[in-house]
Amino acid sequence: MTEETRTETKPRKNAFVLFIHKLGSPPWFYGFAGKLIPWLWLIFGVLAAWGLYLGLVKAPTDYLQGESYRIIYLHVPSAWMSWMIYAVMAGLGFINLVWRIRITEILAMSSAPIGAAFTLVALASGSLWGRPTWGTYWVWDARLTSELVLLFLYLGVIGLYNAIDEPRKAARAACLLALVGVVNLPIIHFSVKWWNTLHQPSSISFTSGSSSIDPSMLWPLLIMATAVKFYYGASLLARARVKLLEQDKRKTWAKNVIREGR
Amino acid sequence: MDHTPFIVGAYTIGFIVLLWNAVAPLYKRKTIARDIRRLIQIEERSIDSDS
To answer: Which residue in A78, A242, A250 is closest to B14 by CB distance?
Structure first.
């Protein structure tokens, strides 16, 4: 085979595949994430300020719930994020268990505390909304209980990861637990349909496109839901960078990062 | 019933939890940076003593 034909038949990686390969390199990921984080925080800040202004100032008072409904601009996006982050964490955990890609285990384990934080906010804000609306802070209703189970699953993943000294072994065990816990996600989602719950059914349907909320109240909710995605992105990358630095602290690239003050 | 304390309470809890979550990695990074600096110093000292 001549040099010319060898060049022609050499498989060429497209830009996306190259990008995925680069993500696997800790120094490259560290630098890339560092550049992205300020932009994600900025977008989050702008969207959150806009969403909260519309939701807390501009949106009209609900004729049934009064002012307390304004808690939904924190409660609903937090609850959605608690489910989404768990799904992402389990997905990354699956990739890690099958292909042993280190960056996926770092991202999965960095997702757990963020997901736990959102679950805690969803439970606390829901409880504070429940008191004026239902007359109680808490009931052992299917939606509330399954969301509490989600918090325990997050805490279980964090606890298991920290209980094992060897980080890669710890991540594999925690990823397995995260995968098992996925069964809770459909239970949370369908709990308001399967059981007779105090928690109301979904007001917004993305599949049918119908919503029982007035657009003046819906738009701030959608803006806040988008804002928290950027919060998750920024927080996830920040945690992943720190975890990488911690695990690779004896490696040259990590020492160079500290020497150069990056 | 005045709903203000419930709204303020919910947003305060949300703000504190999400702020802590955002700030925690910065504190951790400081600790790790200190560890790495110590490792660099040990390394440099051993190079000096060897030479």
So the answer is: A78
Residue A159 clears pLDDT 80, i.e. is over it:
yes
Nearest to A238 by CA among B31, B32, B18, B24: B24
Instruction: Look at B14 and A70 and tell me if their CB atoms are within 8 Å.
Output: no
Suggest the residue from B3, B29, B40, B47 to mutate for an interface test with chain A (most A CBs closer than 10 A): B3
Distance CA B8, CA A246 (A): 38
Cβ contact A121–B18 (<8 Å): yes
What does the CA dihedral A126, A131, A134, A136 come to, rounded to 10 degrees? 100
CA-derived radius of gyration, chain B: 22
Between A and B, how many CB-CB pairs are < 8 A? 86
- Judge contact between A129 and B11, C-beta under 8 A: no
The answer to whether the pTM exceeds 0.80 is: yes
Q: Are B6 and A78 inside 8 Å of each other by CB?
A: no
Does ipTM top 0.95?
A: no
Query: What integer pLDDT is reported at residue A7 of this predicted model?
Result: 52
| pLDDT in the model for residue B32 | 96
| d(C-alpha A241, C-alpha A37), whole Å | 10
Chosen for mutation from B11, B31, B46 (greatest number of chain A CBs closer than 10 Å) is B11
